[in-house]
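Title: [Solved] Alpha/beta hydrolase family protein 3D structure

Original question kept below for reference.
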Amino acid sequence: MSADPRAVLTRPVPGPDVTVAYGDLPDQVADLRRPAGAGPARPLVVVVHGGFWRAEYDRTHTGPLAVGLAGLGYPVAQVEYRRTGQPGGGWPGTLADVRDAVAALPGLAVAALPDRVAPGPPLLVGHSAGGQLALHVAAVAPATVAGVLALAPVADLVEAYRRDLDGGAVAALLGGGPAEVPDRYALADPSTTVPLRTPTVVVHGVRDEQVPIALSRTFVSKASAAGACTALVELPDCEHFGVIDPTSSAWPQVALALRSLQQDQ
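Solution (posted by the thread starter after getting help):
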């Protein structure tokens, strides 16, 4: 692994096989990658990128993650969505875009990559803020999601707001704090709207400074108490970016967690 964990965000990778649109706007698109090898069709894996929902971070920084997942034999879609700082980004556009993408992408991927994508709901892999978005979709539209692998997710928005993660990122997404827009937190916060029907694995590094592991511990505790099929994998020597880096020591645990979700189907 690189001495600088953030190097994964700008590591060059081959371009996608095809880009498809799930809406009419420029950011309502997804990059598709064919799975490696000649194995049977598998469920689509939809990668939801992080970046604290901000416009300066887009799907390109999950290129190494997507290439790594394709190397494991999965068809992969790197979804883009409107973000804060863009027209229509934030509440409610960011969340609506990801819901729409998850619903549309399996059909688009089957058409674009015939014989490589199994019909049916996709597996979602969300990192950081993308983990919050993946958990949100699973909670409000469970029929569209087969499973969620949440990598260092912002899984407790009230606590993330209290800690002022990334300098007001949650308030920028939702338009205020929990006391100002409680209805928005009630809909968007994974720790409030637990995905009860969707198998979920949370993988989080203990050394994470961008999104403290305490948020995942709280989410998984609430989910388990509610009867959800949710597990937490803690990685003692991992920080925030190792979970999306196929060259890191965390990668075998990420691959194992995704395989377990596929087997649950």
